[in-house]
Amino acid sequence: MGEQPIFSTRAHVFQIDPNTKKNWVPTSKHAVTVSYFYDSTRNVYRIISLDGSKAIINSTITPNMTFTKTSQKFGQWADSRANTVYGLGFSSEHHLSKFAEKFQEFKEAARLAKEKSQEKMELTSTPSQESAGGDLQSPLTPESINGTDDERTPDVTQNSESRAEPTQNALPFSHSSAISKHWEAELATLKGNNAKLTAALLESTANVKQWKQQLAAYQEEAERLHKRVTELECVSSQANAVHTHKTELNQTIQELEETLKEKEEEIERLKQEIDNARELQEQRDSLTQKLQEVEIRNKDLEGQLSDLEQRLEKSQNEQEAFRNNLKTLLEILDGKIFELTELRDNLAKLLECS
Fold first, then answer.
1. Can you give the CATH number for the domain in which 82 is found?
2. Is residue 237 assigned to a domain?
3. Confidence (pTM)
4. Are 33 and 241 in contact (CB under 8 A)?
5. CA dihedral 303, 309, 312, 313 (to 10 degrees)
6. Which range marks the domain in which residue 58 is found?
7. How confident is the model at residue 178, as a pLDDT?
8. Residue 334: inside a domain, yes or no?
């Protein structure tokens, strides 16, 4: 086969909810390889992404397609042939810009290839060779289905879908950046959200009317068969891409192991910090207990000091009373001594007179 990968990158893959046309449904559990392929025999460009052996993106680029950046790390495009809208969440703005540039480049190449094919058909088609030309061109019809998608689908429908897309997808576009970061940071959360969205999809699908279910089943069966054929083609022609995918998976596993080792070291460090914190807590408790004992002893000493102050004050009062009594006694004694002195003087005078 002449189909070869010409550009590859890694991204988280989403598809628009076919029922609500608003919510994004993740189709990959982790970042996968998304590649541009060129088929030289059919002269077409395709975007293909595999999750294991399952093709989660198989979109042929046509001149009517437009890749829209809805945030710094998220972009989308509508595929009318697959009747869905694909969304890609990249790890950086650089990867998104590079993918968008390649999309525009290959879209222009598809337009030129389509114009050349139409010119060649017009030059080689004559009234006498009309039936023969139809026989020669019939094998190209299924191969160039996506190249003539605008001929099979009215322009009014395509334009109306393009105009309605921003309003219908306003909610997922506003959350696309947050979803991308969230899925990059928490793989477990991704699995949980994927299970919830899958359950919601199954619940909503069960409530569709019977005639719409039958029509959707026929379309799904046809699309499944087409995807199965594409998967078989991809598996047989993309050995290098699968090998690269395995290598990238091994690198991712190695990175996860290194991250796990770093986390384990960080856990050990945190355990040591916890042990140190416990020791500090024990020291703090011991100091707190000692402080309480000191406070109790201080209160006892304060009580004893208060008692001593009261006793001192009482003693001082007693001493002051004693001084007052002693002073009174001294005054009385002085009076008595004065009286005795006068008595002695009087007795002396009496003795002299006699």
1. 2.30.29.30
2. no
3. 0.37
4. yes
5. -130
6. 5-118
7. 62
8. no
- With beta carbons less than 8 A apart as the criterion, state whether 177 and 96 touch: no
Alpha helices for the chain (secondary structure H) = 93-124, 130-137, 140-143, 149-152, 155-168, 170-185, 187-206, 210-237, 239-353
The answer to whether residue 212 is domain-embedded is no
Distance CA(89)–CA(78), nearest Å, equals: 15
Residue type, 348: A
Lowest model confidence (mean pLDDT) among 32-41, 124-133, 206-215: 124-133
Which class for 230: exposed (0-12), middle (13-18), buried (19 or more C-beta within 10 A)? middle
45 assigned to some structural domain: yes
- The answer on pLDDT for 217 being more than 80 is no
Structure tokens at 350: 């009496």
141 vs 38, higher pLDDT: 38
Alpha carbons within 13 angstroms on the beta-carbon side of residue 114 total: 21
Distance CA 205, CA 226 (A): 22
Helices 170-185 and 155-168 meet at what angle, rounded to 10? 60
- The CA distance from 151 to 83, in Å, is 16
Number of domains in the chain: 1
Question: Is pLDDT above 90 for 168?
Answer: no
